[in-house]
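Board notes (copied after class):
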Amino acid sequence: MGYGKRTALGTIKGIVVGLILGDCYLSLQKGRLNARLEFKQSTKYSSYFWYVYLLLGPIISALPYFYSGNRQGVPFYGLKLCTPLLFYLSLLNFVICFMLMELNVCLTVFMI
């Protein structure tokens, strides 16, 4: 792997962690070992959606799609993208869960 690819992958990893802390979530499917990153935004924020789509381009293999629904009787429309199932995302999910469990234990001990 060349230097450029390592740098690009390192940048993508940082972007993914930042997005998970904000707007994205990791999805684990029953019976699968790997996770995927999912990102949804209202069409109101479509420029931000396309910005994230371009940033994640190296790890996205499918086109984003439109979705719609009803929230408290009001129709809404949005855009969604998903990465393929990736081992790296499963490791990241494990680390995040472990950190949250440690944080919960620490908070519990601190509150006693």
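Comment from the instructor: The two ends are 50 Å apart (CA to CA). Helices lie at 3-21, 46-55, 87-111.
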